[in-house]
Design brief:
3 copies of one chain form a homotrimer. In chain A, 24% of the residues lie in helices and 39% in strands. Chain A is α+β, with helices and mostly antiparallel strands and 139 residues long. Chain A has a 5-stranded antiparallel beta sheet, with helices on one face. In chain A, strands 2-7-4 form a 3-stranded antiparallel beta sheet, with helices on both faces. In chain A, strand 5 and strand 6 form a beta hairpin.
Chain lengths: 139, 139, 139
């Protein structure tokens, strides 16, 4: 049984989904582990991980719009606004979405369904450089 | 340290929770691993995993009703409707609920609390055949 | 490759966030595992796990307030009210927040980002004694 760790850097471009399926699968493939367990950890509290269909742009736009309505940028609602109007909504979205994903690996690749893609869901307005830690364990 | 992988097939019957605690515990028991880590991965983006009380039917009905209100089937809200009115709400619920669960195993069984049960939460109207991958690692 | 398991007991004091970063890091440190995988499992369906900024009290109050509005204590909305008005909302919050977290470990500690802290998010009004199972695997 072996382990490997890697830090994936992801440039985001304002609120929304950035797909990371390809670099994740590529790194897993290089480790030559047939059966195992892959864990992704997002080292931030204002960007998260998501699993979604390798979706049409419509789906992504609908997701962004839905989250704007569910957790609005409205300073009158929140006591905390030290870091701008998008900060407290980002904290709240963190509670509703995922910081980590753990995926079984079989035949040398994560067992994603046909339509499943891996995404970083950025909750801040400005472009950010995000760190996703990948951990693979197996043999 | 050993690993085992299994694909659990779950028939759903429209929107709502389907309990899978028993087949999961049964498969784990057969692996004869005393201490370890169990991971469940749902290979779909319109059905998810949930941990709930082995609950009264009232609780399940309240959960279904709450999600109908939180993420309504209302085509006027969404740009994406290629696959029917329950499709975009299913995508959004995917963002709010869990694709994976990872549970420590001690004394040969997952450390679920007394009241915790494992469920598939179906978000589509029509019955579906869902695939849940189980991965167990330990000794 | 070695494993360790520990049960962390956490006293909560009504609804809200209780930080557990310190006891978790302390237990991990004692295991002398350099590289590995840490899993936290909450053995309850009315208290969950969360990752948040080691935040100002304002942030925590905003989070509590947001969840009161998103999942209100309003008996007229729910069929299930056997265990009091905070019970069904706790079930629903369970669906929206996390029962488990799995974090890679490098250089002997979980790879939390600079601002990430680990919390128990209590959903019941009365103080409770909560059990969090910690599982560490690595070498």
């Amino acid at each position: 049984m072996r382990q490997a760790i890697h830090q994936l850097k992801v440039e985001t471009n304002g609120k929304g989904l950035v797909e990371i399926t390809r670099p994740v699968l590529s790194w897993v493939g290089e480790q030559r582990i047939t059966t195992g367990l892959l864990t992704l950890w997002c080292r931030h509290t204002s960007a998260l991980l998501a699993v979604q269909e390798n979706a049409s742009p419509d789906v992504r736009a609908d997701i962004a719009r839905y989250f704007e309505a569910l957790v609005p940028e409205d300073p009158t609602r929140y006591a905390h606004d030290d870091e701008g109007p998008d900060d407290m909504p980002a904290h709240l979205r963190t509670m509703l979405t995922d910081t980590n994903l753990t995926i079984p690996v079989a035949d040398g690749r994560p067992v994603l369904g046909t339509w499943q893609g891996l995404y970083v869901f950025e909750h801040r307005r400005r472009p950010q450089r995000r760190q996703i830690v990948l951990h693979l364990l197996g043999e």
